[in-house]
Design goal:
The complex is a heterodimer of chains A (257) and B (302). By secondary structure, chain A is an alpha+beta fold. Chain A has helices at residues 4-15, 33-55, 57-63, 65-78, 93-99, 109-123, 157-166, 169-173, 200-210, 215-222, 228-240, 252-256, and strands spanning 131-135, 140-145, 149-153, 182-189, 192-198, 246-249. The relative contact order of chain A is 0.09. The relative contact order of chain B is 0.13. Chain B has an eight-stranded parallel β-barrel. A two-stranded antiparallel ribbon of chain B has the order 5-6. A two-stranded antiparallel sheet of chain B has the order 10-11. Classes of the chains: A alpha+beta (257), B alpha/beta (302). Chains A and B meet through helix 1 and helix 2 of A and strand 5, strand 6, helix 4 and strand 11 of B.
Chain lengths: 257, 302
């Protein structure tokens, strides 16, 4: 019998499909070794596939069960699980789908997966009433849900998801799939996730301040996509007045105390 | 005496897990439990499903106030030669502080090796090296938690030829080496016995002979799938996807007859049915507990 560590390393790879050899002899049993290992391989693959399906429901709905299962099996082979929490499995699935040969014709699939992943992560974050404060200037700060993320996308994953959710095949078929930069905000509201498309200037501004940039840096990022007046207008209407934002007036005594 | 509030927020937990029938709580039933407060002795959840900050974890913060909670882990990988994952253990410890569960358990199995973590409960060779590894891991977990845990006998599909100990002997050694308890899964007894060609009733007797009765702190009940292989051999798969079989109810009754009443849990994880189906299964378990308690009381009264 090999030492326990070696046995476990070999067995883990064998269950994931590698032909490692050198497994220790089994006790006589009515169940053939191949069938016994088959149960473990099926448990592992079905558990991981189910975890991916729960995290990427829009991808699943787009490609169908059989294709999803096939993609999941290929993903498991490329990215074997390394964490006890199944819920965090699949971080690399969007990028994997973009390079997956069988999905080469579905150029938007990676972005759809990115949106699914952002929604899943938002749903596992504290609710919208838990906020972080971003100081805009000496008098104003912006209170944003800690679950809020801004996704830079090339394809309208949010529009695709909405059409699928509505079961609107006509709308789905009419979606313009020419790639162009876009931003989508995602945050948790109770048991659901809210998804909101943002224009370029607003998206660049919000993405900047969420990464910790100062207000002037975020404004500089926004004016790269629009004239200064247009950028300011977009920030006012799409960020400061957005459903996810709360404006906090900082009282003078607060700033000096 | 003053006590610190729990980090989860406040309210005190419902109390210790009673020697009654309980139900494994899964996400589809959260709303029903929150809204209807059904009559169930206690609830058990998998902590790995509650390590995020989402709505299900918030549900558990509320549910724990009304129901005794058991945390039944699946990912500590207590049999791993590579040891218990630091970050995962820290997450489990944090959740335990938040929930203040009446019981905490995991399995006599391994999941992690060589940097991989497989979502399965994989079999161990029962020898001296594995005993030392598993005892070290259990001690580490118990030290981190500041309390003892229960170790569940696994469902197995294969056994290693060089195992020097039986599963019952191995569990017994762990109890004496670490002070842990045992979670007796009678469905796993049926599955493992069937797959390895041993009579489940005999397998149960052996376990009850070796493990001190006081160490057995909980019993699990579940259904399993039965497949006929090409050569006619019957393969039992522990899928928790059907009612408890008559054979498993018999094993439960035999175990309770020897042990006395214990917390007894209905587990159902595949094709999860309506909560009322789980309640009916729990009612059957409760009736067995009540009947044997009554017989025992009569016998004691002479």
């Amino acid at each position: 019998m090999p030492p326990l560590a070696e046995l476990q390393h070999r067995m883990a790879r064998a269950i994931l499909g590698a032909d490692v050899g050198g497994l220790p002899p089994l006790a006589p049993s009515p169940i053939p070794a191949k069938a016994a290992f088959g149960v473990h391989r099926n448990t592992v693959l079905s558990g991981l596939t189910k975890a991916l399906r729960l995290t990427f429901p829009t991808v699943d709905a787009l490609v169908g069960e059989a294709f999803f299962d096939q993609a999941a099996e290929a993903y498991v082979a490329d990215h074997p699980p390394r964490h006890a929490r199944l819920a965090v499995y699949g971080e690399a699935f969007p990028a994997f789908l973009e390079g997956y040969d069988l999905a080469a014709g579905l150029v938007y699939l990676g972005d759809v997966a990115r949106l699914d992943l952002a929604i899943d992560r938002a749903l596992n974050a504290p609710d919208a009433d838990v906020r972080r404060h971003v100081v805009i200037d000496a008098r104003v700060s912006l209170a944003l849900p800690v679950s809020l993320t801004v996704l830079p996308l090339s394809y309208p994953a949010d529009v695709i998801r909405a059409a699928l959710d509505a079961g609107d095949d006509e709308a789905l078929a009419a979606i313009d799939l020419v790639p162009q930069p876009r931003f989508v905000a995602v945050w948790r509201v109770g048991r659901e996730a809210a998804v909101l498309a943002l224009g370029q200037a607003a998206g660049l501004f919000l993405a900047s301040i969420l990464t910790g940039a100062a207000t002037d840096e975020a404004l500089a990022a926004a004016v790269a996509a629009a004239t200064p007046p247009e950028a300011l207008r977009a920030i006012q209407t799409e960020v400061f007045a957005a459903r996810f934002a709360q404006i906090i007036q900082i009282r003078h005594e607060d700033t000096t105390s | 005496m003053n006590t610190l509030p729990s980090p989860g927020g406040a309210a005190r937990p419902a109390g210790p897990v009673p020697a009654r029938a309980g139900i494994g709580l899964r996400f589809p039933h959260h709303q029903q439990v929150l809204a209807g407060r059904p009559d169930v002795g206690w609830l058990e959840v998998h902590p790995e499903n509650y390590l995020g900050a989402g709505p299900f974890t918030e549900d558990l913060d509320i549910i724990r106030r009304d129901y005794p909670i058991s945390l039944h882990a699946t990912g500590l990988s207590l049999g791993s030669a590579d040891g218990v994952d630091d970050a995962h253990l820290a997450d489990i410890v944090s959740l335990c502080r938040r929930v203040e569960p009446g019981l905490i358990s995991d399995h006599l199995s391994w999941s992690a090796g060589g940097g991989l973590h497989l979502p399965d409960l994989l079999p161990l060779p029962y020898d001296e090296e594995t005993l030392a590894v598993t005892a070290r891991n259990i001690n580490r977990v118990q030290t981190a938690l500041g309390r003892s845990i229960l170790i569940e006998n696994p469902s197995t599909y294969l056994a290693f030829a060089d195992s020097a100990l039986t599963e019952a002997q191995f569990l017994s050694e762990l109890v004496f080496a670490t002070g842990c308890g045992v979670l007796l899964d009678v469905n796993n007894i049926a599955v493992t016995g069937g797959n390895l060609g041993e009579a489940p009733a005999h397998r149960l007797e052996l376990l009850l002979d070796y493990v001190p009765p006081t160490a057995i702190g909980e019993i699990h009940l579940a259904g399993h799938a039965v497949q006929r292989l090409d050569d006619g051999v019957i393969l039992r798969i522990d899928d928790h996807g059907s009612p408890v079989s008559p054979e498993v109810w018999s094993l439960f009754e035999a175990a309770i007859a020897r042990l006395g009443p214990r917390p007894a849990l209905i587990e159902w994880d595949t094709d999860i049915p309506a909560f009322s189906v789980l309640q009916a299964e729990a009612a059957t378990a409760q009736s067995i507990l009540d009947r044997l308690a009554w017989r025992s009381a009569r016998a004691a009264a002479g």
